[in-house]
Specification:
The complex is a heterodimer of chains A (about 200) and B (about 300).
Chain A lengths: L1 H16 L10 H6 L4 H30 L8 H23 L1 H7 L2 H4 L4 H12 L4 H31 L9 H16 L7
Chain B lengths: L1 H27 L6 H9 L13 H10 L11 H12 L9 E5 L5 H4 L12 H4 L18 H5 L5 E3 L5 E3 L9 H5 L5 E5 L5 E2 L7 H7 L11 H5 L5 E3 L4 E3 L9 H5 L5 E2 L3 H36 L1
Antiparallel strand pairs in B: 1-4, 2-3, 5-8, 6-7
Helix pairs in contact in B: 2-3, 2-4
Classes of the chains: A mainly alpha (about 200), B mainly alpha (about 300).
Amino acid sequence: MEFVGKILFMAVMAIFVQNFVLMRFLGLCPYIGVSKKLDSALGMGMAVIFVMTMASTFTWLIHTYLLVPLHIEFLQTIAFILTIASLVQLVEMVIQKTAPALYKSLGVFLPLITTNCAVLGVAILNIQSEYNFIFAILNGLFAGIGFTLVLILMAGIRERLERAELPISMKGMPISMIVAGSMALAFLGFSGLKF
Amino acid sequence: MSILIYSIATLGTLGLIYGLGLAFASKKFHVEIDPKIETINEILPSVNCGACGYPGCAAYAEAVVEKGAEINLCAPGGDEVVKHIAEIMGMEATTADRKVAIIHCQSGGKDNTNFKYNYQGIETCKAAILISGGPNACNYGCVYQYDCVRACKFDAMHIDDNGMIIVNNENCTGCGACAIACPRDLIEMVSIKKRVHILCASHDKGAVSRKACGNNTACIACTLCVKKCPVDAITMDDNLAIIDYDKCIVCGLCADVCPTSAIFDPLKEVRAQKKAAAKVKADAMMKKIAEQKAEENKEEDNKS
């Protein structure tokens, strides 16, 4: 029971309280870039969930069984980046083969997951927080879910804003920035959660 | 020292494993792309002007091969490209009706246009029209900051000595970049076969637009052309005559009745010459007939 409780606590922490986009301010590029349409936001979110989970798994393994025994932890960043880049490449190929429409709508943002600091962030945070293997994977999964959640929320709001009557100078990016700021403020409310 | 070796070995091995994995994956998840798309994309002029209605040349090439889009949509490519695409696709080449840019304002350049004030700001039309409706007296006319000329990728627009914008129909590909650039929507893409145009875009009342226009090309909403048009191609839209180019038969009658020079018919002189020639011919015929009749009458008189 304690284990389940711990997982739930972690889920709430990663999705709401320490949300990667709105609280840690990681991965803002796709947050603004791919949140124009709900469909592509969902696709991007799924891709990020997948990449984050896989990245957590592999980086944890590499760190624990390769870098630590050899005392070369200082290579953490470059080894992680290498892993994440390869993973993203793999995901890109798979998506291009299996879902060409999704591949097109994601466009340049799929390769950009490589440089998405949220992915590297979750990998490094896993190590810093000294999670064990299971928790590292789960943390990656929940962080991805949190990212997808805010991406979809943002896309939903922006789709509606398309039809709203706005002053010309506020249309498009400016109002998106304001919305992003308001969402971050709203998510700040979760930081008062205590268990 | 050992750290150095370990680092190099670790990163090298990781890189090797990932590289091999990706190479294997790229084989396994290889996506077949129709080679036709590639060849058509190479033939297309790759200016990505968007005149075909697709976002860029690559998208159009794909649409031609996969969705069966018309092969004659590439305006900058012209007949040559259509022919090549037809060869690749095994279809017959058909040329599209070529469209060229028409500027619906001919207020006569910097000398003839009536200006409210001398605009000396940033040299772009978009900025010029923001200051109390633009520097010229007409609130609909060209402000001569040449956004369209800068937008043209094909050297089809020139500025003459008087500042007028001249469209070179031979270079114009009908891509419509100038029409998008014009903040007053003065430019329209019209089939090259339609030669008669209304060179005014003013929705002001007749007296106002006549006064504002320096070149006597304002449409004063007299509706004479609407009445004269044999095919009902001209309609009045808020004090401005508009030609429906689908209906227009290029007869030039509207240009004849227009009290200003708002309607432009480049064939006017040709038509006048033809008319004169026809009149001479008809007169000669009439004379001949009259003479014949007179002779017949004479013969009848003689018989009786």
